[in-house]
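[job 4471] stage=fold_predict status=RUNNING
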Amino acid sequence: MSRVRLHRPDHPRLLRLLLSGVEFLASLRLAVVLLTFLILVLAVATFIETTYGAEAARFAVYRAWWFTWLGGLLAVNVLCAALVRFPWRKHQTGFVMTHAGIIILLVGSLWSARQGIDAQLSIYEDGIGHIAFQDTLHFEIDIASGQQRTTREATAGVEGDDRGQSPRQENRVVRFAIPFRSGPFNWCDYSQRLEDLLWAPPGRLPILPWQLARRDQGVVFSHERFRLEVLDYYADSRRIRGGYLAGYVRSVTPGQDASWLAAWQPIELELQTGKGDDRAGTAIGSRVTLGDGTRVVLLAAA
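[job 4471] inference complete, writing structure tokens
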């Protein structure tokens, strides 16, 4: 198919630059480069899926920001290649239908990757299923808004009579669902060394393509009263029974005489250790709240 030239020497400079950009986006050369790169990417994604699983392939390739841009640029190339030949003639019907089908396929795949739901619905023989399970990670935080709402609770009055009800103030609680993208591996497994750009030692992950995938590290939620920050993540951690601590504690305010305080309060704490990065050597256990509101948390460090 012949190359379409849109700009002419007599066009203004700005218009020539704009039309030259459209010609480049519609060029067959760009299409060949994009398709070649897409084939290589899909080959790498197939290798990742075979080696690490489907979730790793989705994290590193299919749902990565650069893969979205690659598909979007290919869609723009196909669209421009069709528009620069408008108005279309009758013998170009196959050309138009082919390009329209490719555009619909690319837009649908990008929309499905960003807005689609990947879940499992179990239906057994002679049964009915109505609940789908989605394997995602997220935080749920309940925050008291500080605003009060008035409810009415029944008292000893006659049923249905407003005189038998009294107002009661309740704090409104707002729930926030915060999505969390962690990736399928421990964050300490991602290599930061430049020499591990394409290949890393066993037990480590190279920079490409893993470091290009988005991970929600750092502040993931900010509120006027607090913020939620994720510092590290262990994908293969599990809860096991750890050490057990029983004893007596009491709360002492600095600068005050402790002789008049209440008696020692018994506590029982259990340690929960995680199987992950042994270099961290830290574990967080259960917690209890004393009578005066003081919280006691069991921490362990190796």
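[job 4471] summary: The helical segments are 13-25, 28-52, 54-62, 65-83, 93-115.
[job 4471] exit 0
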